[in-house]
Amino acid sequence: MRDIKTCVIGLGSMGRNHARVLGDLQTAAFVGVADPAANVRAAYRPLQGVKVYAEYREMLERERPEAAIVAVPSELHCEIVADLAAAGVHVLVEKPMSKRLDEADRMIEVTRAAGVKFMVGHIERFNPAVQEIKQRVASKEIGEVFQLHARRLSPFPPRVTDVGVILDLATHDIDVMHFITGSTVVRTYAETARRAHATCEDTLNGLLRFSNGVVGVLDISWLSPQKLRQLSVLGPGGMYVCDYLTQDVHFYKNGRINDSWEPATHFSGAIEGDVLKTYIPKREPLRVELEAFLACILDDTPPPVSGEEGRTALRVALELGRSGVEHSVLEPPQAR
Ligand SMILES: NC(=O)c1ccc[n+]([C@@H]2O[C@H](COP(=O)([O-])OP(=O)(O)OC[C@H]3O[C@@H](n4cnc5c(N)ncnc54)[C@H](O)[C@@H]3O)[C@@H](O)[C@H]2O)c1
Fold first, then answer.
1. At the topology level of CATH, where does 125-283+315-335 sit?
2. Ligand 1 centre from 263 Cα, in Å?
3. I need a labelling partner for 46 at 20 to 30 A (CA). Which of 17, 89, 152, 329 fits?
4. Please, which residues bridge with residue 208 across strands?
5. Backbone angles phi, psi at 105, to 5 degrees
6. What architecture is the 4-123+286-305 domain classified under in CATH?
């Protein structure tokens, strides 16, 4: 197995995490990082062999990396991805892949034309708890899913100034819902509000209708004193509840009606059954994501989260934002 010469562009809060994990991966030869902010570079302690650059173009010229991780603010993704594609470099770009669909299209187009891998960093797919739920839903253990319900609540993050809570947080759950249902959103409705953020929405209550009939409920907010990251998946056989942070999955089984006790026979539909907690070996999702990115280069297989899938999450996020502003139900014809 060979090492892939890899670099990181952008050394902010996410880029530093990429750099930390990358330095520990066997399939990566971590060669360089780039960030124009002098204070950011000064605070970074590079691993041995990692060169620090102010200008990513200079890094590309000198280090000739095979792969790059783009962790700069989302409005800068498109230009940098285009430069990387022109240099024949495989790309993992952070989510949201952009703030605009035309830029998402351009990134998909230029990376395809250059023949490089293009992956979008929808990290929650690589959360072992989400992988477990995906497998169990596919096995039909709970039958055909009715509803997915995501709650992603946090205290207000003053450092996020360029996007609202929909692009920053809801895109995680929109992507997970597509991943689990394997279906497309055909109808969108949102109530949004801005109470603390200077320019963008900081609360979303959203409803998604998927083409296979599943309903997605999104309760996403930066106005909560509690940090919560939870997904529940409901079907006729019961409900999974996943905690993205602890990576715990509970299975609430739909029980059987006890007809020896008369009042219980008045219940119809779901009744309380066993609750099972599944043991899942915990792994850092970012590490699993980066391993998957490098593996798709080594094995020459499609990236596990394609540019098109990143675009789908962005499209739905933008529709939620629009619905929240227009107070309208959106049914884009191209989604059907
Ligand atoms: N996957 C996740 O869970 C997750 C979490 C946080 C952020 N993100 C995403 O990661 C990206 C970065 O977010 P962040 O929170 O790290 O932002 P940040 O503001 O903390 O860091 C961005 C860094 O990019 C640098 N930068 C700006 N222009 C550059 C250029 N031309 N070349 C190189 N570096 C440049 C800035 O100096 C800064 O250090 C965003 O797309 C964000 O949505 C993803």
1. Dihydrodipicolinate Reductase; domain 2 (3.30.360)
2. 58
3. 89
4. 188, 216
5. -60, -40
6. 3-Layer(aba) Sandwich (3.40)
